[in-house]
Amino acid sequence: MDNILFLKCARQILLANRKKGYTIPGAGIYPFQWKWDSGFIALGLSHFDLRKAMKEMETLFHAQWSNGFVPHIVFHYSAENKNYFPDAAFYHSSLSENANLNYETTTLTQPPVEGWVLERILSKGRHLPEVHDFVKRLFPKVMAQHEYLYENRDPFHEGLVYIQHNWESGTDNSPVWDEIWSSFKVPEYEFSRKDTQVVKEEQRPAKWEYDYYLYLIDLFKKWRYSDVLIAEGSPFLVQDPLFNSMLVASNKSLIRLGEQFGFSQDVKRLERWNMKSVSAFNEKLFDKDAGMYRHFDLRSGKWLDGLTSSGFAPLFAGIPSQQQMKRMLFVLERFSRDGKYFFTPSFDPENDRFESQRYWRGPVWVNMNWLIIEGLKTYGENALARKIKEDTIQMVREQGFFEYFEPDKEKSRKQQFGYGGKQFSWTAALIIDLLNDKL
Ligand code: 2M8
């Protein structure tokens, strides 16, 4: 397939997954609007339809809560999309005094990508007054989200915010959580798995893991979703390198946008937050021996076990020094097993718990590759960025616009298909961006 046709397919996927004012991640498996998916999707849309890109973000922020919190799923229910669990009834968001009662949403959030997404949308429509108005309208909302995170998710005022649930990380069943799950017991839940009706069981999280995911939400319900009570009592409280990298990258974008659009008071606050975040990040989350950023468990007071592709995300936010970045390149190359694996497995392929087709326990994800490519470019590491870009494009071209992919090149050649959902929106959106990129 030549590039023109490939691009056309990617656009068609985004348009086919588009509903009224937002885009679903993938038909069948993810029938609503997801927070960070919308960010990547808006970026893809911005290459050919700026209005739709802006609308995607506006729709997401309509569901923002009174305290600035942005939920990770907005359940835009209709007659045909009841097939997702846990649903709005399970979350029961109105238990929170901050919930937005006009929308049915979850009570968890996802990586704060919106600041840098706004800046990229602006770069595509710098000459258009409606894009300027859009940025001016959205800026205070994104700012309110950052304020929510710094004021409610950083109990020790370190400059690093915590996630309170694995679903907030974006990397749902990463092996790094195993250690937390083994530290407490949960009841067995009875429910019907909807995801495994659409995707093979061996490509999704296990049932026992879902029990943990549901238990945490039940616990939060008892506390009426109070962040103070969650921080005091929940067994899951993690400073995640991917989530915090997206926050820092968005802080930086908001600082530039704020200067440009006259939000000077906000710029001062953002600069203060950001300085603290970057230095805490390097002091606390960088493992000098491994040459890599790690997840920090606030409950046990130590790093979680295992290296993940989330540990490369600080490159995107310009957090590592030149020297730290060089160390990380060794890890990145090691993850590819001398070119035998596609860049970049989501979990360390030399670790016993690596599973090449199970979701976030090993497969390659296009959004993570995209963040790494963009990060490497800002450090001038163009040759490696180009290699990862070529791998990403080749993988999707050969296997289709899947949700995630087999890292082992030889194995992938034999099976021809990717894993998880088909016609997946962020895969399409980011392929559009990569194909338009001059690298
Ligand atoms: C996956 O997560 C959802 C829960 O939020 C799920 O498994 O049902 C993750 O890959 C997450 O990062 C992504 O945003 C979501 C939709 O694509 O799917």
Q: Can you give a write-up of this model?
A:
The protein is mainly alpha-helical and 439 residues long. It is 50% helix and 3% strand. The chain contains 18 helices and seven strands. The strands form three sheets. Strands 3-6-7 form a three-stranded antiparallel beta sheet. A two-stranded antiparallel sheet has the order 1-2. A two-stranded antiparallel sheet has the order 4-5. A hairpin with a 4-residue loop joins strand 4 and strand 5 (292-293). Helix 2 (35-45) runs antiparallel to helix 3 (50-62). The protein is globular. It starts with a helix and ends with a helix. The model has no long low-confidence stretch (mean pLDDT 97). The structure holds (2R)-3-hydroxy-2-(alpha-D-mannopyranosyloxy)propanoic acid. Residues 25, 30, 34, 36-37, 72, 167, 170, 172 line the site of (2R)-3-hydroxy-2-(alpha-D-mannopyranosyloxy)propanoic acid.
